């Protein structure tokens, strides 16, 4: 049985986020002072989580967020962050660097609505979802390969009196995940999982990825989660956490449980005034 934990965090705020200007892939803005404070808060919130892998979009705002989070972690300060272009924000073509209101005006002129509208030179929602699916399948394959390596290592230690090491608790949440009341089975799953993967990405990309989880893979959701939350873009440094069970056999059939979606209570004390 192959299982792994997946924590997905949106990058911290940039000046363009604050001003509601589309960045996409073509505008590579750094974090603002507020964005760094948000990343610090997310890092403190996740500081007791022993991640085994960290992946980030290769855009600057995501890279800075991932680095800040890991810098606060008690177990992972020496971990190598892997940057992956598949985690980039949706490409908005001619709308990049322009106000969100311009994109909405383009959509209205075309008789369409955001976010399904695709500006010239931009990515369709299907294209973004294909990128997310490709990256998720990569994570699944990575987990399977590592499980095989672990089993071989255990066989190699048979009879030598050594015990296998159990993982650390993978996430600092218990009964505070969107009102979710964890049952004994779920709680057991969240305690000992390996790999334990952190991903830092972008708002529109994450919304499409979560849509793939829910619509295509029938992800189990917390009972208190509202439908409006599923279609909302994560706040900056919003934290989502999933448990993935890949089962057995040659065909990978992921079973996904969402523990929390776009959680942002770690930002309660972050000053979000203009800096």
TrEMBL record:
Its EC number is 3.1.3.46. Gene3D superfamilies: Phosphoglycerate mutase-like. GO terms for molecular function: fructose-2,6-bisphosphate 2-phosphatase activity. Belongs to the phosphoglycerate mutase family. Pfam families: His_Phos_1. One of its GO terms (biological process) is regulation of pentose-phosphate shunt. The active site is at 11 (tele-phosphohistidine intermediate), 89 (proton donor/acceptor). InterPro entries: His_Pase_superF_clade-1, His_PPase_superfam, PG/BPGM_mutase_AS, Phosphoglycerate_Mutase. It comes from the Eukaryota. It comes from Gopherus agassizii. One of its GO terms (cellular component) is cytosol. Keywords: Hydrolase. Substrate binds at residues 10-17, 61, 89-92. This is Fructose-2,6-bisphosphatase TIGAR.
